[in-house]
Each structure stands twice: as C-alpha cells, then as structure tokens.
Amino acid sequence: MDPTISVSKGVFVFKNGGSFKNKTKTPSKQVSSILSGDIIREPFYRVFSQTWGAFKDDIEHLQKASCTQILEDLVEYIRDVEKLGNILPAAALLTGINQPDHEDQFNTLSQRIKETVKSSVAIINSRDATHLKNAVEALVYEVIENNDEERETKRLRKTQMNMDMLEAWYDKDECDCLVVILPDFESFNPEVLQDFILILSSYSRRIPIVLVLGVATAVSAVHGALPYHVTSKIKLRIFQTQSAPLGLNEILEKVLLSTKHSFFLSGKTFNFLTQVFFFYDFSISGFIQSFRYCLMEHFMQGNAISLCTNYEQSLKFVDKLSHSDIEFIRRLPSFRPYVESLKDFQKIIDILTEDSCMKAHLPALLKECHLYSKVFRCFVEFLTVLVEDLPRCPLGKYRREIYTICMSKEIIESEEFKECWQILSFMSKDEFSNKIFKAMSLTLTFVEDNFEEEDSRIAREATTIMQKALEEIRENLQLVIDAGTNVNEVNKENTASGDLTQLSRQELKDKLLQMAKEDKQVSEFSKAVETNLEFLKTEIIGKFLRPLSKAPPLHEIFVFSDIAMVKKNIVGAPRAALHMALNNPQFYLQCKCCDLETGSLVPTLPDLSVVYKLHLECGKMINMFDWLQAFRSVVDTSQIEDEEDRQIDPSIQARFTRAVAELQFLGYIKTSKRKTDHVTRLTW
Predict the structure, then answer these.
(1) What is the CATH number of domain 80-242?
(2) What does pTM read for this prediction?
(3) Which of 180, 188, 134, 129 is nearest to 161 (CA)?
(4) Where on the phi/psi map is residue 396: left (φ > 0), alpha (ψ -120 to 50), or beta?
(5) Stretch 23-42: mean pLDDT, rounded?
(6) What single string gives the DSSP state of each residue in 622-664?
(7) Domain spans, the chain
C-alpha cells in the first residue's frame, strides 16, 4: 500500500529542502460586494443603511456611556501603578456570564488603555497558556511582536521568548508599564496560573506590571484558584461591570423602543429575540446582530418599505413609488379592512385602480401610523409605572414585557391585567393617588425628553394628544381625591357620634349583630376609584395600547412580524440540517449528479450520504458485513453475476470505512460490545 494512503485521518509532510521565509503580504485585490450597484442605489437599501446606522450609533453611544465610568476607574488604577510599591497590582473585572461578549469588552479596554496610558497591553487567553512555558511565550510574543509595530528586527525564536528578553525590551522601550489581561480567568489551569503570577510578581520590581483578571462568576473564584502564598504577592482591587441583562434592558428601552425610530418589532418577534438572549447565550452582540437581521429582512421586501422612515422623509419617497410598489401596499393584510371601511364606492375603485389616487391617500395613512407608534410607546411608559411594583408583578416589571403583551393581544381582556386592576382598586387614597401622579409625571417627562428633541410635525401632534390625555387623567384623579376627603370627614363624624367604647358588653353585642345584618353600602371613594379605573381601562389603555390586529392600516411597513423566518435563520437546527444534508445532498451542493428524482440511491451520491441512507433501513443493530455489501452494490456499477463470490475492492472497503467513521463522529452510530461485527444505531 502506498505510504500516504490511510483510512484514518493524517497529514503527510514531504520535506523538499525549502525553508520558511517571512514574505511580505501583497495587497489583495478589492473584493467586490455581493450587492450590485443597482441594488445599492435602490431607495429601500439607502433607507436601510440610514436606519441601521442610526440604531448602531445609538447603541454604541449607550454602551460607551454605560462602561465609561468603570473603564475610567480601571485606567486610573493602572495610571497609579507606581504608587503601589513592589507588590504586584491586580484588578479583578467582574464581567458576568456573557462569554460571547467578553472579547469585545477586553478589546475595548485594551484600546482605551493604549489611548490614555503609555503602556503595552498583552491579552493572554487560557487556550494559549496550557503550560507555564506557553503562558510566558504568549506574554512575550504579545508584548514584543504584536505591540511593537515599528520593530524591524527578525522575529523571535521560541528559545528567546522568556522574561529576560521581556526585561531587556522594557529597558529599551519608553512605555510606563505593562498591562497583562487574562480575559477568561476561570478557564486557566490553577497551577499554571499560580506559577505565572509568582513569576510576574518577582519581576514587578524591575518591570511595572499590572494584572487584569476577567472574572465571569464572583470574587470567590479568585480566592478559590489562588492560595494564600500567591494572593499575598498581589494587591487585588474589584471592579464591577454592568451585567448583561441590565445592559440589554437599557438597549431595549432607550434604543429599540425609542420614539425617534420608525422601525419596530412585533410582540412575538420581540419576545422571541429576548428569550434567545435570556435562555441561551446572554450575548448582547448576538442580540444586536439578530435585530439587524430582522431589519435587513424587513427592508429587502422592496422599495415600498422605503416609507419606513420619519414622516417628512417618507413623503419624498411616495412620488417615486412604482406600480409594483403600489400593488405591494395594496396586498398588505391591513389594507383590505381599510378599503372595506370606506363608504364611497367611487373612492374605493379609484384607490384600487389608480396609482395617483393611492399616492394621494398615503400621507394621511402614514401619519396615522407614526402617531400610533409614538403614542403607543408613551402609554407603555404610563402602564409600566402603574404595574411594575405590584405584588407578584402580573404584567411584568419591565417595559419590554409590557410592550410584548400590548403588541400581541388586547391587554385589557387578559387575566393579568384584571388582576392588576383589582390590586389597584384595593389601595388607599394616598397610595392610589401617588401612583397615578407618579405615572403621569414620568410619562410627561418621557414625552418632553423624546418629542422636544425630535421637533417634527408628528412629534408636536403626538405631544398634543399626550397632554390632552394626561389632563383627562388628572381631572378624573381629582374626583377620587375629593371623594376620599369627604369619606374621611364622614368617618370622623360617625366615629364621634357612635362611640362603641361606652356601651356595655351586651349592648355592644347587640349593636354589632345589628350592624352585621345591615346591607353594606359602597363608599363614595370606592365608587370614584372604580370609575377612575374604568376610565383608564377604556379611554386610555384600551384606546391607545391597541395590538397590531387593531393597528392603523399599512402598519406592516413599520413593523417586522415574520417570526417564522427569524426562527429558521437565527436559531439553528443542526439535527434537521444534518438529516437534510445526508438524505438529500443536492439541497446544499446544488449539483445535478445528486438528483434523487430517478431513485433514492444513486452511485454519484457522496459515500457518507449512501452509508447514512442505508443505515436508516436497519434496526438497532447493524451488521457491518451486510452494510458493506449494500454499500458496494450501490457505488460499484460493474455487473457481475455472482455478487457473493466477488472479492471486495480495497478502495471500496476504504471508502466505506471512512464513511462509517464519519457517521460515528457525527453521533449516529457507536461500536457494540455485545457483537464485534455489529454497530449500534443511536437515532431513530
């Protein structure tokens, strides 16, 4: 057999006398985008770029503001390294359990340190420090090779990557200190970590070194991994970063649910993305990319979606809509109920047949959608303040939860809403009035902060609507306060005239029995509270927090609701994908040789696919010899009368062995201890 032929995996190296040379990289040719120039110039793509740019800028600004203080404190700690003496300064950065975002966090930290402090930064991951020697080599390489961009000398050999070389480099360099960052502290081998810290501590007198530990769990992990003789060599300071759930809530409430943006997610889609975050990865960057995908899918529907922008800009795109764009708008699910609600038959005919008439009606419909979304968001704020601190939080305590419920269904008909309203009805006058006043005050502040900055016609009209609604709420609340005051005065008079303490025991008993038989009268305060809650339910919550099913026509232009597409492309289904790839390779390969129209098994199929399809026909135990014979009958096209006496071609047997090994690697089969010539099937 040829020495390079092997069933098992292997790499064969043939030394030809060549040597490795550090060749300079030639500038590569510019890779052309998959998007043609015509698509980039389309209105929907321009609006998509502007919309995503606005979302991205707001998210980055919010993230920068949330981590500015912690970064400044950490940088200040590094700047004062000379004041700490000979002991090794160490900072434990509690990042929380959101591993996918840690790389971005520490890259930002590294960049911030380089900008503010004249220092060299080395980021060492646990995968690069399996042994102490690897850890030291990674440190020296990161400092000398990666940070020193102007270095023209030859690359260091592994024998030169030691602490003495690092000290010699520091004596020649002009940096103030060396910052060593271990982003995944818990993943390091404790013994390697202890020895590595002791080495850094011994060199800290000659090289100003600052150690930054990225701790995902708690400070106890540091004390658990480092014994006393190691912790006594460092001076540890704790820095707490913002947790991933709090960071996501800020992004959701201040960016994605902001009134300044015209694009929104439906309740089900919004809830699905948040569930992926909280139950799977805790990755903020992953959530942002999923949201970006939804935005991209929404705008890729066509130029009619270019109207998904602010009102003034959308009016400029109305005249540019083509006939196909107008037909797309007419086919929207919410457009038919709108047309059926019209009473003028000639108007209906004109809207359905004449594009110019349809364009004339679009500004009014777009205006109604913009007002709906802005007022909807304001009263989500109002309802959140009312119910966020109620016992058991029936509707939830976050704006994202209430937004999801309000967008998905008629909230006033839900059992959770009825429970909240019942709890509110049990409150005293002071508690009830203070809660309503607080909700009004925070909602008014929200309106002022968002609509005054926008300064548009839609924002001014939304402000007018909100001010009128809040004034009606205040007037109804005043009736409750007056009723509560009157009830207090009546109670005082009744208490003064009917003092039960002066009665004898028998008289008191008779009096109480008589009072029990009398019909209880509902107080004026209870009636006022009930009337006020009914007003809030019907005239405020029911009127302004309408679900998408009752939203204004053409709301589909502004709301993405294709949750099936999101589930298909964001949440992977590896088992289904593997089955499709092995059962029908043409689905992914797009080749004519794997066409299964003529039969379920053809010789041109990949060996792994043939083996997989044959194993589906077997039971729990699969005989290897029978399996091999079936495989040979499919892939070997030569015709021989006596198949049983035919000798198996070694190449076919090798192909079969490799395919079976790959199938075992994928987890479909395993070797059997009961029968050596059989394998056990693991899936059904």
Answers:
(1) 3.40.50.300
(2) 0.77
(3) 134
(4) left
(5) 55
(6) EEHHHHHHHHHHHH-----S-STTSPPPHHHHHHHHHHHHHHH
(7) 80-242, 248-492+521-560, 574-681
